TrEMBL record, chain A:
Its main location: membrane. This is Multiple sugar transport system permease protein. It is a multi-pass membrane protein. It is found in: Cell membrane. GO terms for cellular component: plasma membrane. Belongs to the binding-protein-dependent transport system permease family. Keywords: Cell membrane, Membrane, Sugar transport, Transmembrane, Transmembrane helix, Transport. Coiled coil: none annotated. Gene3D superfamilies: MetI-like. PROSITE patterns: ABC_TM1.
TrEMBL record, chain B:
Pfam families: SBP_bac_8. This is Carbohydrate ABC transporter substrate-binding protein, CUT1 family. It comes from Agreia pratensis.
UniProtKB/TrEMBL annotation, chain C:
The keyword Transport applies. It comes from Agreia pratensis. SUPFAM superfamilies: MetI-like (SSF161098). Keywords: Cell membrane, Membrane, Sugar transport, Transmembrane, Transmembrane helix, Transport. The keyword Cell membrane applies. Residues 80-294 form the ABC transmembrane type-1 domain. This is Multiple sugar transport system permease protein. GO terms for biological process: transmembrane transport.
Amino acid sequence: MTTITRVSTAKKRPNITAHVFLVALIIYFLLPLWWLFVASTKDPQGLFTGTGGALWFDKNFNLLANIQELITYKGGIYFRWLGNSALYSLLGGVGATILAVLAGYGFAKFPFKGRDFSFAILLGSVMVPLTALVIPTFMLMSQLHLTNTIWAVILPSLLSPFGVYLMRVYAADAVPDELLDAARVDGSGELRTFLTVALPLMRPAVVTVLLLSVVGTWNNYFLPLAVLSDQNLYPVTVGLGGWQALAASNNGGGTSLYTLIVVGSLISIIPLVIAFLSLQKYWQGGLSLGALK
Amino acid sequence: MVTFIASSAVRLLSHPTESATASSRFFFRREPFTVKTKSLLAVVSAGALLATLAGCSPDVSAGGSTDSAGGDAGSCSNTIVNKDAPQVSVWAWYPNINTVVDMFNKSHDDVQVCWSNAGQGADEYAKFSTAIAAGTGAPDVVMLEAEVVPGFILQDALVDLSEHGADDVKANFSAGAWKDVSSGDSVYAIPVDGGPMAMIYRADIFTKYGITVPTTWDEYAAAAQQLKDAGGPFMGDFGSNVPAWFTALMTQNGQKAWDYESADPQKIGIDLNDDGSKKVADYWQDLVKKGLVDTKDQFNTDYIGGLANGSYATYVSAAWAPGYLTGAGASTEGDGAEWKAAPLPQWDPANPVSVNWGGSTFAVTTQAKDKDLAATVAKELYASDEELQDGVDTQTIFPLNQKMLASDAFADTPVKFFNGQTANKDVYIPAENAYEGYTYSPFTTYYYSELTKSMVSIIDGSKSGSESLDDLQKTMTDYAKAQGFTVK
Amino acid sequence: MTNPAAVLRAPSRRRNLRRPWIGWLFIAPFGVIFLVFLVAPLVYAFYLSLFSKGLATGTIFSGAGNYVKAFTDPEFLSGIWFVIRFAVILIPIQMAVSLAAALVLDALTTRLSRFARLAIFVPYAIPAVVGTLMWGFLYSPTFGPLTDLFKVVNQSAPEILSSGNIFGGLLNIVVWQWAGYYMIIIYAALRGIDPSIYEAARIDGAGPRQIAFRIKVPMISSAMALILVFALIGTLQFFTEPQVLRPISNGSITSSFTPNIYAFDLAFRFSQFNYASTISFSLGIVVFIAVYIFLFASRKRRGGLS
């Protein structure tokens, strides 16, 4: 709707400075990724003493061999990590979104006693640094016999206070009370009202929260590092971090891990980058939805 | 308007780098928000919750874990061969540990190892000390470097193995290796892998610049000067991230840093700034100042790159160096690099001193359910001929077990990295056998962190070597006092 | 809004008040997670911070003693000082980059600008651990691209991770990782402005630059201020990037480099859980004060402007 006028304003000035600026930004933001790709094609020696410099290919193109080694190294544990990451971020992301939608709707549409107080607590409680939470969380998990299980990663990932905040703000505006009341008058139960009337209206915000929580869980490093000790359960961030530590220690033993780390990093970022590129309509929509208000 | 703002916060919150806050609430000021009373209430309600949780007894899942001797160390990363045998959980990070565990399990009917990798070094220690503080979550047997053993003893995390048959295997180890894990009559871990120190060097670079292999530190410095004058590469490296290395070199010149016994854990003697140590510190500062050695941190890619491309003529290192460098890609093939091993240069060639970079061990934790069984695993894992051989073949460990150390096969192995030099016989085995052991403090990680700061000041020249050790002595003494030790 | 609503609202409100537990039911699942994984650990951590334990001594109750110690602890204070300096320098740069990018992208609709929007945003999808590792490689003075660059002028490459340069090295990584994200948020806010306002301005003779700085920027200022708050909190809690760079930093990242690293090391390396909890809470207090000051100042300023 607004784009038509925009195009006409932009057309007037095919700004060269602006385009140069954009090209510079593109180079800056993509340079490390280019490096990562180039480095993935090198063998261990090429990585450190390659002929083409850091930003160009070595004389040996070793990408397939590196991937091959990644597939076979320790029985393909890398791909297990990748699978774990997918599992955790999907379960964690979906779970966090469900909880956030329910709670946000509850906060927005039910003026119960203590609502404002608990909402303030919700928002005010996250100023304490993460490091403070790790030890007690670990102890709690131990008591519940959850350490070193997938639940130790997934359950805390369900916590998304700002997902709730987002949902509350969105539901308050996007779901008219009149519609809910009409449904109630028609004899619809609260849960059914929520599912059939409110939820469809909240869909754009749901997608945004889902995507953001999936990314958050996928990128999480500190929590799984602390609560997992079985490497079959590691997500890919912790696995790669572990390889880095192993490579940098005195017990490297036999295999060069650096090429595995580099090619593993490359593969690990592909799913999310693809997800963002292919879903850009949704997340950009979700972000600007708020702005349109 | 607020919607997208909140969505940004979701990302911030779920991200380890940045977590967010209730700022939007303050910012918009729609409702009054007084933190004091509200958080007080939160504290009260959560306190009630905590009490409930604390009351929850730890054997909720006892039904499911009858076959496990261990606590909550979790599922195994290996297959259990003899499913009827009791299991002992083990944390370890040796690169070939999965092979070794399989070997162990196949050869044992009475006990099975349930292994997992809880991280490398500091990561594992972090988990282990958290589990100790939590009172649950530790494995039965844990791999520890010798330097951290006294600290964990002080946390009451380790079992005295002398009560569980440690003496059975004492004869398998050199006196020095055994001393590293003992305190008085008590033994808190079984040694596995060691790091006797030596100097490896690039024979091709030495030949090119006409340098003879230095046997004393004076010769080492002279050779370094000679290299520089001829426009050659660095002689070596003084990196701030290898405090264990620097400690070993100071120990070589007579430093007796700690006077400490786990049997009398409130008292400690500290002596870090004796003349011998100061001489070593000033010596390296001099080499750094003259530009004869590099100051890169070791083990990182930059340093490995330098080793691979001939930036360094020597690497003062431990017995695992050839395996490490092979793995890191510093090969001898193709680029004309010719590595050789030589004994560590000495201060007094008449009285050579052998030192150790550090080694790794297996210890039994106080959370082990069956301590005898766990001790059996600590003693026998990585101890059979087959298991040791795999460690040697994969260049994973330098075995401390005399079964391997004293065997001809090990001694006579030509090491590929050294172009067939029998480095074990020539250099590493004598170094290990002459090693006399070391007394570690119960706060090694803190000491290493402070020593790293001293090494940084030695490198950047902000303090002289002697001054930085004087300051270190003071820092460590103050720290020990603050932690409640009586400083002797 | 409409008449039927007014009719309907009264009974429904009564109904809700009669059954207040329905609201709680919707919130309950989240509430349980919130209590178990946030409130309970927090309370426990606070409880820990009230006790002190030396390595060689038993645990004793020390009340506020640990807090007194923390705010006179030079290591903690130097970490605080570092993150404050870092925030003061980082945030303007970060905001300038993302605002400039967003303004340009808002004004252009070419294929290049669409590509640029994605390219700038991509680092957000990359885990901080991986991103930092990549930059660590790129900073290498022996095999990074700088080596080749400086070879041309016959110089050796600078040590970006040395203690003199680490500040800039970290600055760059954080800007790279987050600028795109902030850019997208600002961009979304800009798209939300009614374009008829620009039309009116143009009729009044305003050029694109004037439109950008006189109209667009003021209209998104509250969004900007809020992003600033998030950036401020994030920076004060700086952890992952220096922690990942630490092994290759040649000693310039110490165990008290930032308050969060200090707390982490105290707990997990030096086994001082009580004091570590205190440091974490003290950092929380500092963050709270900083955010409060910032909001107070910006509110006053904005109040004066409008």
